[in-house]
Amino acid sequence: MKSIIQFLVILATLAGMVILSFFSKSMDEGNTSASMYYGILAILIIGAFILLFRWDKRRIQKEEFELRQRVDARVRVALNYKHPVEFYAKPSQFGFLVFIFILSLGSIYLGVYLLSDLPSTEWLLGAAFLSGGILFGIASFASGKRLIGRPVIRLDLRGVKHFRFGFIPWSEVTDVFLQAAVIKGNQVFSLRVATINKSIYLARLPRWLRVFHKLEPGGLSLPLPLSEQDARIVDGVAKGYANYAGARTIEQTISRKVVDEISSIQTSQQRMKRLQELMTETSGEFEKRRQEISRTNMLYSVILILGVIAIFVGAWVKSK
Asked: Which spans are transmembrane here (predicted)?
């Protein structure tokens, strides 16, 4: 549905530009009837735009409400029965890995070609393509091997088991929440898990991948190549199991602090006033923490994109 709406917006924009050009031409020629005709068409297109956006807004709100209902229902079932829950990668993830692997082969071929064709004093560009192709090729192959027939993440009362980080017990967890980022219109999800000793779980990663995760603030970032519904269910079940297991998360600590402070206040009016103040303070702290993580991830993405652009520009310049 999203793609259809985007297509309609593009089509209506092109039609509006054509009508605007005809309207300007008829005005220059003094053709009043044609100007009125094109003006009415322009008004109709603007009205269609408004109706489309209003309808799309209602559609998004309805889909969001239905999604929350489905997520809440599945989370309640999992928390009531307290059985292990597994989630598998969405099919499009394997297509993405195949695409990355093909690009890696192309990068390796280009690197070998440049190393054999360029002078020995200009080997840096070819080495960059070759090493980058090998790196991304190994990463895509290893990720595909780990995801085929295996769950991305498994949650139970003992802890969380991730296909990349292995098993993390709830007793080690100090915070857990879902993070979403939009990349080219697609949402990418990760489960942020803060632990008492982050280095233990980073040591389970390959050395080349460990460097990137060490730079990330806020604990471990567990990639979730899942649908939005499954990612939200993971978030709800993870928080529920962590609370049930007695994990000392930040949310639990703040909740206990709020309860203790409110219970010490005598009058109900003072309790409500203090409760509102505490809710404002805690929501501000959570929002600030998530914004810091989002800014850091955005910086990494910009650096990566600029690096790739620089490599291709360098290859183009060398080919001239």
From this structure: 7-24, 36-53, 94-116, 122-144, 298-317
